[in-house]
Design brief:
elongated; 115 residues; 42% helix; alpha+beta; single chain; three-stranded antiparallel sheet; 3 strands
Length: 115
C-alpha cells in the first residue's frame, strides 16, 4: 500500500500565517432547505482538512495540476478541485500560468503554494 499525505501529520493552515476562515466560503444558499445548511456545516471540518492536505502537497512537491495533487495527496480529484478556488481566495495558492498533463492526457491548470 502506498503512503500519501493523508497518512502524515498535517500542518494547520493557520500556522502558515494565514488564518483559515471557512465561514467565508458559503456551502449552502440562503434559500436552501435546512438540511442543506446542516450538511454544509457538517462538512466544514472535512473541507478544512482537505485544504490542509492540498496546501501541504503543493508545498512538498511544488507546482502540480489537479490530478497531480490528487495522486500525491491521496485525495480524490473532486476533493482537490473543490478546494483550489478556496485556497486561492485565502491567498495560499495561485495559478502558475502553465499547464500540466491530466490523467486523461489533456492539459489542466497548474497550481503552486505561495506562502
Amino acid at each position: 500500500m502506498s503512503s500519501s499525505l493523508l497518512d502524515t501529520p498535517r500542518q494547520n493552515i493557520s500556522e502558515s500565517g494565514k488564518e483559515m476562515k471557512l465561514f467565508d466560503f458559503f456551502r449552502a444558499r440562503v434559500l436552501d432547505p435546512l438540511t442543506s445548511h446542516m450538511a454544509a456545516e457538517s462538512v466544514a471540518d472535512v473541507a478544512k482538512g482537505h485544504m490542509e492536505v492540498v496546501y501541504a502537497c503543493l508545498k512538498r512537491y511544488g507546482p502540480l495540476g489537479k490530478d497531480g495533487i490528487a495522486k500525491y495527496s491521496g485525495l480524490r480529484n473532486d476533493q482537490v478541485w473543490r478546494r483550489l478556488p478556496e485556497l486561492q481566495k485565502l491567498g495560499m495558492i495561485e495559478l502558475t500560468g502553465k499547464t500540466a498533463k491530466s490523467n486523461s492526457g489533456r492539459s489542466e491548470r497548474e497550481w503552486r503554494a505561495i506562502c
